[in-house]
Here is the input.
Amino acid sequence: MILIIGGAYQGKLDYAKAQYQLSPSDILDCAQLPPDATPTLNQRCIYHYEAYLELCMKQGVEPRTTFEADQIVIIEDVSCGVVPMDAHLRAWREVCGKIASALARQADSVVRIFCGLPLALKTASKDSTI
Amino acid sequence: MKVFISGGCKNGKSSFAERAAQQLQADGKLYYIATMIPCDQEDHNRITRHRQARAGKGFITLEQPTQVHHVLEQSDYANGTYLLDSVTALMLNEMYPMNASQPDAEAPKRICHDLSQLMAKAKNVVLVSDYIYADEGHYPAYTEDYRRALAMVDRHLAAECDTVVEVTACQTIYYKGEKI
Here is the structure.
């Protein structure tokens, strides 16, 4: 699995589309799912995985956290602000951090997108996972 | 050379940017594009303090809180080095003009255009922005629109610049181009 992380609006999906020749049907945008959706995440590219985690928490179901070798998971980094006042957002933010770390361990490569530019954090030859 | 710098607050972006501009300067003039619109005495005091600090480092201050390409008319651009700190403040001035009831939706496009024009003519440009994209979000639309717009401008500038660098804890992470 390939994990793409980065802040909001940094060009994560544009990078994935260009790098892996994705067609619209390859992409599941979890931010667009209705509140009662129960996605299986079998698409090639899972976009806004953090929104999927929010959905699972609201529904009280376990999220899918393992992926196939050819899948691309895109998660927004929501970890760097002030601790949210809202208890649900606080819990969600922590879940996002923990699961992103678990995905990074599992991933064959991890790429961070910054202002539209990629930085390889983990590759086949460089794994500095803590 | 055109340099784009971003990162979190109080991580050393401005110091790094000043140093980068001084290094690039060579025998040309060094300009600081001041973007702040003072609102009270505290702002005026801050501006005076910053002006004094910069004068010692060889910067000529150009007041240009909006329409930034107009600095070209007040300076020797062909051989000049310009420091703009920050794109964030420029965006605020352009997007939310004083006394306007609505944000100016055209502001991001205009800033991209103005800064591209500056970069095309000036010898060296160092741009500083702020990385405000990695918190939990859920902002009101007013704030989210600003955040999205700044990100679009950042990406445009990062694509056009020769060097793109993130500054964190006074350390540099290069995403593109020659190191400074």
